[in-house]
Every structure is written in C-alpha cells, then in structure tokens.
TrEMBL record:
<comment type="similarity">
    <text>Belongs to the DnaX/STICHEL family.</text>
</comment>
<dbReference type="GO" id="GO:0009360">
    <property type="term" value="C:DNA polymerase III complex"/>
</dbReference>
<keyword id="KW-0067">ATP-binding</keyword>
<dbReference type="InterPro" id="IPR050238">
    <property type="entry name" value="DNA_Rep/Repair_Clamp_Loader"/>
</dbReference>
<dbReference type="GO" id="GO:0003887">
    <property type="term" value="F:DNA-directed DNA polymerase activity"/>
</dbReference>
<dbReference type="InterPro" id="IPR022754">
    <property type="entry name" value="DNA_pol_III_gamma-3"/>
</dbReference>
<dbReference type="Pfam" id="PF12169">
    <property type="entry name" value="DNA_pol3_gamma3"/>
</dbReference>
<keyword id="KW-0239">DNA-directed DNA polymerase</keyword>
<keyword id="KW-0547">Nucleotide-binding</keyword>
<comment type="function">
    <text>DNA polymerase III is a complex, multichain enzyme responsible for most of the replicative synthesis in bacteria. This DNA polymerase also exhibits 3' to 5' exonuclease activity.</text>
</comment>
<dbReference type="GO" id="GO:0006261">
    <property type="term" value="P:DNA-templated DNA replication"/>
</dbReference>
<dbReference type="GO" id="GO:0005524">
    <property type="term" value="F:ATP binding"/>
</dbReference>
<dbReference type="Pfam" id="PF22608">
    <property type="entry name" value="DNAX_ATPase_lid"/>
</dbReference>
<dbReference type="InterPro" id="IPR001270">
    <property type="entry name" value="ClpA/B"/>
</dbReference>
<dbReference type="InterPro" id="IPR027417">
    <property type="entry name" value="P-loop_NTPase"/>
</dbReference>
<dbReference type="InterPro" id="IPR003593">
    <property type="entry name" value="AAA+_ATPase"/>
</dbReference>
<dbReference type="InterPro" id="IPR045085">
    <property type="entry name" value="HLD_clamp_pol_III_gamma_tau"/>
</dbReference>
Length: 370
C-alpha cells in the first residue's frame, strides 16, 4: 500500500528524531540518563501522535547492548530484533482485539519469565482502554507488584476510560496533536531525503488537511509523490491529486456572499462540481473559514488563534472580509453551512443542499433578516 510507505520508511528510530512531543521526550530521556526507568507508563493522546513509536524506541533504549548513550544504537542485535519485529522481549498487544481476561492471564504468565536477551521485558498494550473490567483487574495485580525486569506501556486514545486505580500506578505522558509547523517540518525532511522539490505552501496545504495527524499527512504526501514521480510538486498538483480544497476558494466564495452575488455563487458551485472537486470538503472549508471570520470579527486579537491556519496575506484578506459582515450574520452563515453539511452527507442531492444554503445566506443579506 502506497499510503504507509513513507510512514514506515521514516518512522523515528531514536528519541531525537521524534518531533512535536518534546515534553514527553525530555522527561523520558532524563529518566533514562539517570537510570530511573518506571515500571508502568501511560501514553495518552489522539491517534497518530507517535505513542507506539515512542514505546518502541523506549523498548530499544532500555535493552540496547550499547550503553554509551541513552539513545538506542539501532545496530546491536537487540535493537535490530525489535526493528525487525522479532524481539522476544517486546510484546505488543492490541487491546482492541485481545481484550479479555484470558489474554491478560497469559500476559501475567509471560511477565514471570526473565527477558531473553536484554534487561527488560517490555509490554505495550495498545488501545488499553478497551480491556474488559476483568482484564483490567488482572492487569492491576501485575501493576501493583511488577517484577524488576518488566516495563508496561499502556497506550490509549481515551484515557478517561481507564480505571483510576490503574491511573494511580502509571507515569502518565500526554501526547499532543502535531502543530502545523511540526508536520510541515517533517514533510520537508522527507522531501529532502526523497530528493523531491516541493514548496512550503504546498506542504502547508497537506498539513492543514491532515488535522494534526502525522500519519495522514505522510500518507497524503506519499500519494502525491506516487502520482507526480520525480518532478517538482506544486500547490496545484496537491489540490488536483488529493481533491483538497484550497482555503483560497473559500475566500473567493465568501466574497461573492458578502457582495450578495447569489447567481455568481451558484455558478461557482456548479463549476466546482464539474471540475471534480468534493463539495463536502468545500463546505467544510467554508465552515473553517467562516469560523475564522467570526473570531476576527469578534476581536482582531483573536487572529492569534488562527494564524497557523492562514498565511499572512490570507489573514489580511480575512480581516477585511470580516468587516463586511455583522457578528450575527457570520454566526448565522456558519449555522447554515453546518446544517447544509449535515444534510449533504445524508442526501442524494448534495449539490442542491449546497445551493439552498447559498441562496439562503444571500437572501438573508438582501432582506436584512439576521
Ligand atoms: Zn542497540
């Protein structure tokens, strides 16, 4: 599968290669430097933020045969075993499919055995919140008195579903969603290594559309590279290949609404559909952009909340556009788009829904009803 190629190829293999989770890495590496490794960790955070990646690096680091650094050497037999997925001392369990008491009992059996090669047996339980109650209590017993050679890493996207008794026995790390800049930086690094020319603007479009999920961003970028081959990649390539709607289109469309040009707005939609763009994505970008307008209309100071989402030039345009609407008009516009989006997803006539919303917004404007 194309879409996982880049993700696997450039999966960070050292702490220093992990971007965007500095707070986690700093605490973990200083514990490693001082030899104070905990026996149970909770890695909490949204999907695709690098929880299992960091868990594997940690497993390598504690078992690395070369102890000249806190980083794994990625060359010794122990590191290579883990990287090749054949290590006996790293046990990864997906709690989404192995959530019962039997699996945890089996796990408790395995906990008793000492590591085969390294110092520690590392158990990574992914989606740990999905374990059944019985499985949790069985696990708890092990967490209460973990053998010295065992490290547990519980990874979860939903930490609030974890039992308090479990939470009190783990050292918790919260993984955050990646910022736009983290993603752009990483894609730039990949582009550099792949020898591909692509400008930052194009990468920002991918980053924006990945909504903070690095894996999604990498897979989108992989798709683009696969289509473009080795040529230069520009903004248009990305929009065409991924069917991504550039925020500039939303800006143009809102301009038409501000000027009450309903006929032109309807033509815009029609053209848009004929060019093969996804109308749902377009309405989503209209909602995103109307939110920006609403925020800066309420107060220009709020532009700091959205400066990652827009270029300086786009932000300037947004500030000017926002002045053309009242706060009520903007909130009503957003509401209409949100309702339209919901209906579009359930309707056999999505284009009609978008057109109705457009007319409604323009007509409100005409009659002064807000
Ligand atoms: Zn090593």
């Amino acid at each position: 599968m194309i879409n996982l190629v880049l993700y696997r190829k450039y999966r960070p293999q050292k702490f220093s290669e992990v971007v965007g989770q500095e707070h986690v890495i700093k605490t973990l590496t200083s514990a490693l430097k001082s030899g104070k490794v905990a026996h149970a960790y909770l890695f909490a955070g949204p999907r695709g933020t690098g929880k299992t990646t960091v868990a594997r690096i940690l497993a390598k680091a504690v078992n690395c045969l070369d102890d000249s650094s806190y980083e794994p050497c990625n060359k010794c037999e122990s590191c290579l075993d883990i990287m090749d997925g054949r290590a006996m001392d790293l046990i990864e369990i997906d709690a989404a499919s192995n959530r019962g008491i039997e699996e945890i009992r089996e796990l408790r059996e395995r906990v008793r055995f000492t590591p085969t090669r390294g110092k520690y047996k590392v158990f990574v339980i992914d989606e740990a919140h999905q374990l059944t109650k019985d499985a949790f209590s069985a696990l708890l017993k092990t967490l209460e008195e973990p053998p010295a050679h065992v490290i547990f890493i519980l990874a979860t996207t939903e930490p609030y579903k974890m039992l308090p008794t479990i939470l009190s026995r783990v050292q918790r790390f919260d993984f955050r969603k990646f910022s736009l800049n983290d993603i752009v930086k990483r894609l730039e690094m990949i582009a550099g290594k792949e020898g591909i020319k692509v400008n930052e603007k194009a990468l920002r479009i991918i980053a924006l559309n990945s909504e903070g999920h690095m894996r999604d961003a990498e897979s989108m970028f992989g798709q683009v590279i696969a289509f473009c081959g080795d040529k230069e990649i520009g903004v248009e390539d990305i929009e065409n290949i991924l069917g991504i709607v550039d925020i500039n289109l939303a800006i143009k469309f809102i301009d038409l609404l501000a000027q009450k040009k309903s006929a032109e707005a309807l033509t815009f939609i029609d053209k848009f559909v004929n060019q093969g763009y996804d109308l749902v994505q377009f309405v989503e970008s209209l909602i995103t952009y109307s939110r920006i307008l609403l925020l800066v209309r309420v107060s220009r100071d709020l532009s700091k909340l959205v400066k990652e989402e827009l270029s300086a030039e786009q932000l300037n345009t947004a500030l000017k556009q926002a002045e053309q609407f009242s706060i009520q008009e903007l909130s009503k516009t957003m509401e209409i788009f949100i309702e339209a989006l919901y209906r579009m997803k359930h309707s056999s006539f999505p284009q009609v829904e978008a057109e109705l919303a457009t007319v409604e917004i323009c007509e409100r404007h005409y009659s002064g009803v807000v």
